[in-house]
Amino acid sequence: MAPKAQTYKGMKDYLPREMRLRQYIIATLSDVAERYGFEPMQTPIVEYEATLAGKLGDDEKLIYRLQYGDDKLALRYDQTVSLARVVGQYPNEIVFPFRRYAVGPSYRGERQQRGRYREFYQFDLDIVGVDSRVADAEVVAVIVEALSRLGFTGFKVLLNHREVLSALARVVGVVDEQASQVYRAVDKFDKIGADGVRNDLLKSGLDADAAAKIVEFVATEGDSQTVLAMMRELLKDDLRGLAAVEDLSAVVQLLDQMGIAVDGYAVAPRLARGLSYYTGLVFEAVIENPPIGSLLGGGRYDKLIGAFAGREVPTVGTAFGIERLQIVMTELGLQPPIDSAPRVYVTLFSPEQIADSLALAQELRAAGLPVVTALAPDKLGKQFKEADQKGVPYALVLGPDEIARGEVVVKNLRSGEQQSVPRDRVLALVQE
User: Fold this and answer.
1) pLDDT of residue 269 exceeding 60
2) Which of 25, 124, 132, 203 could form a disulfide with 79 if both were Cys (CB 3.0 to 4.6 A apart)?
3) What percent of the chain has pLDDT over 90?
4) What structural domains does the chain harbor?
């Protein structure tokens, strides 16, 4: 009995139509990254288990573990730990600051749900080895430009700083033992709203006055300068908090100087993004219209990369989830221009015309046109149907009469119209 044809749960096949969109997304992100000076890098999907051990906290249970002979191995959990390993492994080959991007699959043994798979692709982008607000601003600028290039509108990159919420907790009198509960409650703001956050804070033991001040702070919205002024006023007696606000202010100023549209980003006091992981700026790209929610996030993490280097290595970065982008682009109808899809289908009229037809196909390919040919002479109607099913807009027919006249029949499979044109005009016609 033949085995059942099926993919492993939590993993997905991508047929040509879906794959073209994925390739378009990756090519667009790569182009934007390259123009900002980021360099490509690739690491294996298999690492020693010890490389990942102790780096993921409670998520270590999601690691796919392997054994080959005596070697204990693991599938890559994300690109960040691999980056950290590379920085520690090649100290004489990496020039800091190191701008790198990497795209590829990672694996997590988590419960499958919509948009979350056990095999998933991420496009990671990081600046390693410098604590700089310019670096922070560049990563945010790449996000804004990349999303715009992919066709997204109505999105905004929300900005905050790890120390802002820490300072807020100190200013309102939250004891250290309760601070993590404040962060967890604030992190759910977009899901449960201001009242939900207030209720969570009260349940965790905060008094009503402290809860009210926190909710008022994190619910503040407006232009970046207004929000920054509010932050400065409330955190004026906390030096670390004020320093964080000035970091945010510097990033905003740099984005303005870089010409990034002001409607592409906003200071958002409610943004938390797992504060135990980050050490400075945090950001999250969200689609506000229509209200779809988070697309991706990132921030400054100055301690993780140094785990292999034996010293602190400041780093800021982000990760684009390819599956998430693909799902949202499909839902929003953001169909990209797929230039690599076959533009022309060259039919085979009869065995006697095969050589001429293949020569025509090669001429068009040499001119840069994607061309698919029939693989055997058959009824033209059947060949036209195959071309149409493949989404090819034009079919070319080269019969004995056309060859004698130096012409080609060009059939528009969308409209059904066809015309005979001189052979040297075919390329210009189908390109138009």
Assistant:
1) yes
2) 124
3) 63
4) 9-131+302-338 (3.30.930.10), 148-272+282-291 (3.30.930.10), 344-431 (3.40.50.800)
pLDDT reported for residue 430: 85
How many other CB atoms are there within 10 angstroms of residue 34's CB atom? 13
Dihedral angle computed from the Cα positions of residues 371, 375, 377 and 381, in that order, rounded to the nearest 10 degrees: -60
CA dist list (Å): 161 to 142, 157, 218, 272: 19, 13, 12, 8
Identify whether the C-beta of residue 220 lies closer than 8 Å to the C-beta of residue 269: yes
Who's near 94: CB < 8 A, 6+ residues apart?
86, 87, 128, 129
Render pLDDT for 112-145 as a digit per residue (tens, 0 to 9).
Answer: 777 688 999 999 999 999 999 999 999 999 999 9
Per-residue b or e along 150-181, where b marks 16 or more CB atoms closer than 10 Å to that residue's CB: bebeebbbbbbbbbbbbbbbbbbebeeeebeb
| Torsion angle of C-alpha atoms 283, 285, 290, 291, degrees rounded to 10 | -40
pLDDT, mean over the chain: 90
Residue among 168, 169, 190, 191 nearest 178 (CA): 169
User: How far is the CA of 247 from the CAs of 140, 276, 305, 422, in angstroms?
Assistant: 14, 19, 21, 65
Q: What distance in Å separates the CA atoms of residue 253 and residue 304, rounded to the nearest whole number?
A: 28
Cα distances (angstroms) measured from residue 225 to each of 77, 167, 413 = 39, 19, 55
pLDDT band at 275 (very low <50, low <70, confident <90, very high): low
Half-sphere exposure of 274 (CA within 13 A, CB side): 10
Whether the CB-CB separation of 303 and 312 falls below 8 Å is answered with yes
C-alpha dihedral sign at 148, 153, 154, 155: negative
Of 134, 75, 83, 93, residue with least CA distance to 306: 83
Structure tokens of 172?
Answer: 């309102």
Q: Are 103 and 78 in contact (CB under 8 A)?
A: no
Under the banding of pLDDT at 50, 70 and 90, the label for residue 57 is confident
CA dist., res. 155 & res. 286, Å (int): 6
Tell me how many degrees the CA angle 51-55-60 measures, rounded to the nearest 5: 95
